[in-house]
Amino acid sequence: MAKQVKSRQRVTDHGEVFTATREVNAMLDLVKQETERVDSRFLEPACGDGNFMAEILRRKLEAAKKRAIPPRKRKPLPLEFEKQSVIAVASIYGVDLLIDNVIACRNRLYDIWYEEYENICNNEINEDCKAAVRFILDRNIVCGNALTMKCVDENGIEIDEPIVFSEWTFIMGSIMQRKDYRFDKLLAGNYMPNALNKKKKRADEYTQMNLLSIVDENLCDEGEFVTSYVADYRRVQEHG
Questions:
Q1: pLDDT for 201
Q2: For the whole model, what pTM was predicted?
Q3: Are 195 and 216 within 8 A, CB to CB?
């Protein structure tokens, strides 16, 4: 069993106690259907070194393998799994106050992804895709304060820079679109996007809303939307 405490000092300074594996799985089983969707988005506002996110990614990669199996076949197609696995990685977000946790979380998720990628794609491993996944994790796992929604520097000092998250979407073939949004604006709650307004009558049917599902691209004049890029999914890192 993984340690729940790194040191007493960290508990004293930051209240850092990691959730045990048994509790992680029990909690995720409450939303089991969502954890088994490749593209469902999850945000962990105090992610630590990734206990929740690691298990979410494992479940999503299992779903990615199933989606990559063509009819009447038994094995996933390597290229299709590659794309589905990128979607799985790109749908997971995290924030933590401590840079060592952030780095550990990014590396942990990358290792989980790469183990499956190497196993399935074998001789078809693409170096650009590996770099793209690293880049996506760098953008999705942020060193910051989820309460103030501001970034935190490597010394643990909050800076006057808002947390920005990227929404990653395949729009055509291998083309992926990245849209950046300010976290504080996403959670401001002072606007009603068209997409959400249309669903308002059915709101009671939903028990959970994904982090970025409330965003509408028409809100850019309000300041919620920051910027957008389009590129081949293996080259998203070219737009830093």
A1: 44
A2: 0.81
A3: yes
Q: Say if residues 81 and 50 touch (Cβ distance below 8 Å).
A: no
Helix axes 51-67, 21-29, angle to 10 degrees: 50
CA-closest candidate to residue 62, choices 107, 3, 12, 120:
120
Burial degree of 51 (CB within 10 A; 0-12, 13-18, 19+): buried
- Mean pLDDT per 10-residue section of the chain, whose length is 240 residues: 65 66 91 94 93 96 95 90 98 95 97 97 94 98 95 92 95 95 78 44 40 40 72 92
Amino acid identity of residue 115, one-letter, is E
Please list, in sequence order, all residues whose beta carbon lies within 8 angstroms of the beta carbon of residue 205, skipping any fewer than 6 positions away. none
Q: For residue 11, how far is the Cα from the chain centroid?
A: 26
Output the six-digit token pair for 35. 């954890």
Alpha helices in the chain (DSSP H): 8-14, 21-29, 32-35, 51-67, 78-90, 99-121, 127-140, 183-186, 194-198
Phi/psi for 159 (5° steps) reads: -115, 160
Residue 44: the pLDDT is 94
Q: Which tokens belong to 27?
A: 């909690």
Tokens of 125: 């491993």
- Residue 240, SS3? coil
Question: Helix, strand or coil for residue 2?
Answer: coil
In one letter, which amino acid is 97?
A: L
Give the angle subtended at the CA of 129 by the CAs of 175 and 91, to the nearest 5°.
65
d(CA 84, CA 36) in angstroms, rounded, equals 12
